[in-house]
Every structure is written in structure tokens, then in C-alpha cells.
Amino acid sequence: MKIKQIELGRLFTFGPRQVVGPLKQFNILIGPNGTGKTNLLRIIDGLQFNYRKIAKSIDLYQPEIPFNLADNLGSQDTNISGILRIGYSQVDELDGPTLDKEILFEYDVKNPVWRYIHGDVQGFSLKTHLVNIPNDLQFMKDLTDITHRAESALPLLNFGLFFIFGAHFTFYKNGRFTQGRMHPSGPDEIEPSALPSGVRECAKLITSILRRNGKPVLLFDEPELHLEPRVIRRLFTFIFWLMVRGKQDRTTKEEEAFCQVQSILDTKWPSEGDKFRIVPPTQQHISWLSQIFVASHSPVLINLAIELEETAAIFEFSSNETEVTRYRFSENGPVKPLEQYIACFTTVREATGMPSSLLDGLGAKGSDLLQTNGVIWVEGPSDCIYIRKWLKMYAIEKNLPLLVPGIHFDFQMYGGSLLDSISLSEDSLSDTAALEKLVAMFRFSRNALVVIDSDAVRGSDGKLKDKSKFQAAKTFIKTEFEKAEAKGQNIGLWYPEKDEQISTIENYLDAESLSAAPSSLRKKPRAQRITSSWSNDKKISDFAEPLAEELRKAYTLIAQWND
Fold first, then answer.
1. What confidence category does residue 131 fall into, taking pLDDT thresholds of 50, 70 and 90?
2. Rg (CA), the chain
3. What percent of the chain is modeled with pLDDT above 90?
4. Which of 202, 204, 263, 314 is most exposed by smallest CB count within 10 Å?
5. Rounded to an integer, what distance in angstroms lies between the CA atom of residue 438 and that of residue 140?
């Protein structure tokens, strides 16, 4: 079951009719504090009634359910009601000739931070219930339970924690665990209560997902309050991997996100022993989840939703003042207006276009949040074209996740003339100041890779010389990078200083590439024509030998920016 659309009004902060949709697998609710994001999660919770109510003959695609605020939402106004319409996508699990059947609802007014909704079709009834994060005792029971439900469940839990935290936490069906790879003389098993809180919550969350028979909907309220950005990114990437792992027709974006996790599983996860072995999905593979709803202010989740654009939706919440009249409803008497007042009502819209408007709405500043994870500084546009293509080819050849320009990295051009003007300064003091201003360009991002041509030629005396007019700038940048690198900064320098064969980026090209476009063309159109001529069979090894090592270092560095 998937929720397709929610139409609501007169519930919590929602006044006039609001439509939230079309909903996708991964739904991010973004907006300033007090705009009603959590209220939407509470209303989705409200679809599961604590008191039991059978709604006869409701169209599963567009049911209309009366929702009494006084009984269900703690309102002091006894007879005020709202209308909630929920549209569902097609439910393939229904075993029957029609979708017009009885639905059983449960509702729970408790409001924990982590909440799970489990939908399971049985016969002609749709049963749903809520489950909170389990305590340690329940966690042990869940671990025992999942070992009987799926062969890969415990290894999936262990791998999930390895992917998220980069450390081995090996859980056993008795609920105990070991940290680190087990050896015959290894450490004793430890109680779950000894886990760090972040690891424990992620472990309980993954276990709760794995023990569901059906396809649950997951609700999160501001996970950034408890988890660091790196953990949030990896947690949701892993959850998404669980969602699409058995899917046969993954979209391009789904495949890229899938490969981020799968490549770690294939290359870094041990295969020996039952506690590590993960069985590949089959055609009967169970999808552990159908939908995720997250209320958040985290730019990490905005980034993730943008990366998963075909599968994810972002909804922007705002609060607007509106003049309203308050009424008292009575079953046997007339409707009586009580008072008029100004109220702040929640409005919702699907966010489209540039994501920068979302950051503006949250009050994010450029100094608070960088909109790309790192900058590759190049001399001109032709360098961008070649390096972008080579990075993609390298990732495909090595079966690594693709790096997305604009998210994982972006290009900035400095131009040789800038370096030239700096090196030609006659005043030594102003020259130093100007060079330091050049280094200030790295304030665009604390992660940087600078690509510099060596412009190396061998003189009549047999020594290598830099034929350019800005050798001083190159030397200064190299020195500054060595200092920053020694301090552990995520920076890199692509500078074949002593290689006379590679004096410019174009020297990496092979003869076939050079023949694909006349040398009389300007650099940018020539680079476009050359790269478009490369077939899918083109390999990095076809180019000059030093390119492979430069790409390895560049890819590794950019991957660290996005870790």
C-alpha cells in the first residue's frame, strides 16, 4: 500500500483545504519551525485509530473519513470535526476482484520521535497499527524473530551498521553483539545497552524494518536532533537500498543510489560465515518498505531528495495569517459563530525548481551551508568537459558510484590570466598579498581540488622549465596545499610539475581522440566534439598512462568530501 495524496482541512494547524501530493516513496517535509510539518506526521498517525471503527464500502483510492478532533486529537472544542481524504495507489496485494472493501483503522495519540506504520492486507480487510522504537527486551525478541523470517535479516542488520558507522557490530539472535571481527579468542558478547545511543537507535530501527511482514510506512520527526549529518545520509541511503534492493526496473537515479551501498557490500563486506553472508534478492524478494515521510530542517535530506528526484518529493511548509470565524456545531441545533480571530494556518506546496529557495526559507547562509560538497578549480571550460567525462568513465570501469556534478562536486574556473596578473606584480609585498587573495578562493568550499597545467618544456641545457609567466603563483599554491594537507584538510592538487609529456590537460588525449576534431577549433567546442566521439568501449587506459593515477586520486578525494 502506498499513500498517493492527502487532502485535509480543519485539523491541527491546517485551516482551508490543503493537498499534499503527489506523494512518492521518499517524502521530505521542509519548512521553518512552527509551520506544521510534525502535524502532518501526527495526522498520518491519525489514520490508525486507537478506538476501532469499520468504514463500510470505502473506495480505497479516495476514502473520505470523518475525523473528530475532540475524541481523537485532544481538542477542547467538543463537536468540531475535520475531513481527511486519503488517496492510495493501487494495492496489488488485495486478494479479491474489487478494491471496494472494509478497512479497519487504529489510532494512537502518543507522539514518539520515531514512529512506524505497518500496512498488511489480510483477506478483504486492511489492518494497520503503530509500533514505537522497541526497548532492549523487545529488541532481543525482534532479533530472534527476524532470524526466522528471512535468511539474510541478521547479516543485513550487521551490514547496515557497518555501512552507516564504518565499524563491525555483529549481532546474534539472542540480542547480544560483538564489536569488531570475531576470532576464536575474540571479545565476549556484549549486552545491547552497552551500545552508543546513535548506534543503538539505528540498530533498533533497522531491526524493526526487517521484522515487518508487509510493507510499512516510516515516519521521522527531525532525525538531525539525534544523529550527525554523516549518519543521517548513510542511514537513509541504506534504508532506500532496502526499498529497491529487489526491484527489477530501477530508474537511473535509483540505480545510482543503489550502487552506493551495493559497491560497499561487494568490495568491503566479508562473505565468510553465516553471520556475514547476505543472500542476493530473488524474484520473490520482499520489499521491506513502501514509503518514508521525514519532517526535517536538514540540508542532507534535501540533497538526498534531489539526488533521488524520480523517487523523492520535497514539500515546503509555510505559515500564513488568515482571518477566520470559529463555529460551534450541534447535531440538533443551528451552527453558531463564536468569535472571529486571526489564525496562522499551514500551507503546503511541492517544491520544484532550484533548491536554493528551500535554503532561503530555512534562513541558511552560504557560510552556514555549502551547496556543493567540493570545488574543482580548473583553468578553463575545456578542462571541465574532459575531467567530468573522465570521472564518469573511471567510476563505470571500477564499478563505483557515479559522482554527480552540482552535488558531489562542481567546477570553478580561475583562468590563466588571473595567475599571470599575480605573478607579474613588481612589488614583493603586494605580490604576496595578491597570492594570499588567490588562496582565499578556497573559502568557496573547504574541500578543493586544483588542476594546474605544468607548461613544462625541456630547455637547451636539458633542464625542465615552466614556459608560462606565472611560475611564482604555481609554486605558492603548491606550498600552501602542502601546508593544508599536513593539517588534514580534504584538498588535492592535480599538477604534473615535472612531466614534460603532460604540460596541459590535452596531452592526456590519445591519437584517436585528437583526430576527432580539428586543432583549429577553439578549446571548448573541440573538447565537446572529442568527448562526444568516445564510444562506450573507450577505456581510461587508452589515454596517457598518468591519467589513471590522477583520476584515482581525484575520485578518492571527492568520495571523501561526500562521505
1. very low
2. 29
3. 11
4. 263
5. 57
Interaxial angle between packed helices 299-307 and 229-244, expressed in degrees from 0 to 180 and rounded to the nearest 10: 30
Look up residue 531 and give its three cell numbers: 568527448
C-alpha cell of 443? 573559502
Torsions phi, psi for 293 (to 5 deg) = -120, 125
Tell me the β-bridge partners of 132: 115
Among candidates 5, 9, 68, 7, which has minimal Cα distance to 324?
A: 9
Per-residue pLDDT, 285: 57
For 153-194, the DSSP string reads HHHHHHHHHHHHHSS-EEE-TTS-EEES---TT-PPPB-GGG
d(C-alpha 433, C-alpha 476), whole Å: 12
Burial 472-500 (b: 16+ CB within 10 A, else e): bbbebbeebbeebeeeeebbbbbbbeeee
Which residues does 426 contact at the CB level (< 8 Å), separation at least 6? none
What does the alpha-carbon distance between residue 465 and residue 58 come to, in Å, rounded to a whole number?
81
Beta-carbon contacts of 365 under 8 Å, excluding residues fewer than 6 positions away, are: none
CB 11 within 8 A of CB 40: no
Amino acid 77: pLDDT: 37
DSSP 3-state of 349: strand
Least confident of 233-242, 285-294, 520-529: 285-294
Distance (Å, rounded) from C-alpha 159 to C-alpha 433?
A: 51
Q: What is the pLDDT of residue 101?
A: 28
Q: From the CB of residue 234, how many other CB atoms can be counted at a distance below 10 Å?
A: 24
Q: Which of 209, 223, 86, 93 is nearest to 145 (CA)?
A: 209
Strands of 280-402, DSSP E: 291-296, 312-328, 336-350, 375-378
Whether the predicted pLDDT of 426 surpasses 70:
no
Q: What is the pTM of this model?
A: 0.62
Residue 347's CB: how many other CB atoms inside 10 A?
Answer: 18
Residue of 70, 16, 60, 8 whose CA lies nearest to 39: 8
Residue 103: Cβ-neighbour burial (10 angstroms; 0-12, 13-18, 19+): buried
Give the integer Cα–Cα distance in Å for 208 and 212. Answer: 7
The domain locations on the chain are 3-134+213-261+287-317, 375-561
Helix or strand holding residue 58 (H, E): strand 53-59
Length of the chain: 563
Per-residue confidence (pLDDT) for residue 226, from 0 to 100: 76
pLDDT score recorded for residue 271: 67
Top-confidence residue, 433 or 472: 472
More confident residue, 516 or 427: 516
Of residues 109 and 81, more confidently modeled: 81
C-beta separation of 504 from 456 below 8 A: no
Is residue 547 predicted with pLDDT exceeding 70?
yes
Task: Tell whether omega for the bond before 66 is within 30 degrees of 0, i.e. cis.
Answer: no
- Please say whether the beta carbons of 181 and 269 come within 8 A: no
